[in-house]
Specification:
Radius of gyration: 18 Å
Strand order of the largest sheet: 1-2-3-5-8-9-10-11
Structural class: alpha/beta
CATH architecture: Alpha-Beta Barrel
CATH topology: TIM Barrel
Number of domains: 1
CATH superfamily: Luciferase-like domain
Helix content: 25-40%
Order of helices and strands: EHEHEEHEHHEEEHEHEHEH
Distance between the termini: 8 Å
Largest sheet: 8 strands, parallel, barrel
């Protein structure tokens, strides 16, 4: 099992390139950056468990700008979106950004995708939350057409275009791995419909490990599983390893280098303890 980190690349914390270089130097296999274009000030959609939303949610750099900085600062590290809010993005532009980043990184990009949780944020981008999963599906399928075809067309309910040229194509063929985020009741169907991997947040008692078996039973092709929000707990890491998880990643606090290093050290101690227990 590989290990990585997640990070909110905020403008008032350790810069994306410096963070990525540190992660690579310390042996992490991947870094995933969070995305929010903005956060509505209304705050009508509650945050997890009714807690106050941390300010890092509305202080992040643009996702693909931050990922490009991370890719430019490293040579081996996988760089990924954790997650890209595809329902808030034009699919033609996003397909171009994905392909450009995959080219500039030498084929090191991993495309974590999802619909998000903040309904006002979705509406501000013109997406009706009631149809967000259908929008997500069509935009992913449209981008796959753009990446694969010399002259791409797509005709759906929410995405429609006729005969376009878009280059470069991604280095990874037919496209970078698509990691489908989420833990809702329909997420496994979405993974099977358009994903290469399931990319859930780990929640204690949330059934992620149990649902991996359900995914394997349903799948007629190979599906990877990666986990975000993994705790710094070697016992949990062992359970994820035994369940066949390919990579476990932990969110590292956004802040100056000293804060980041403390978060990394805690994660590294858990990985070392896990490895000593029979990884």
């Amino acid at each position: 099992m590989d290990f990585g980190i997640g990070y909110f690349p905020t403008h008032n914390a350790m810069a994306p390139g410096d963070l990525a270089r540190l992660a690579e130097e310390r042996g992490q296999s991947a870094v995933f950056f969070a995305e929010h274009t903005h956060i509505p000030a209304s705050r009508d959609t509650p945050y997890e468990d009714g807690r106050e939303l941390p300010q890092k949610y509305w202080h992040t750099y643009d996702l693909f700008v931050a990922l490009t900085a991370a890719a430019a600062a490293t040579s081996r590290l996988r760089v990924g979106s954790g997650i890209c809010l595809v329902i808030e993005r034009d699919p033609i532009i996003t397909a171009k950004e994905v392909a450009s980043l995959d080219n500039l990184s030498g084929g090191r990009f991993e495309f974590g995708v999802g619909a998000g949780w903040n309904r006002e944020e979705m509406r501000n981008h013109g997406t009706d939350p009631r149809v967000r999963m259908a929008v997500l599906h069509e935009r992913i399928q449209a981008m796959k057409a753009i990446w694969a075809e010399e002259e791409a067309s797509y005709h759906g309910t929410y995405v429609d275009f006729q005969r376009i040229w878009s280059f470069p194509k991604p280095v990874q063929r037919p496209h970078p791995p698509i990691l489908v985020g989420g833990t809702g009741p329909g997420v496994l169907d979405r993974v099977l419909a358009f994903g290469d991997a399931w990319f859930p947040n780990y929640r204690s008692g949330g059934g992620v490990i149990e649902r991996i078996g359900e995914l394997r039973a349903k799948a007629e092709r190979h599906i990877d599983v990666q986990v975000l929000s993994a705790p710094a707990d070697p016992v949990v890491l062992q359970r994820l390893h035994e369940a066949g998880v390919q990579r476990a990643s932990r969110w590292i606090p956004s802040g100056p280098r000293s804060i980041v290093e403390r978060g990394l050290e805690e994660w590294e101690r858990a990985i070392a303890d896990f490895a000593g227990e029979g990884a």
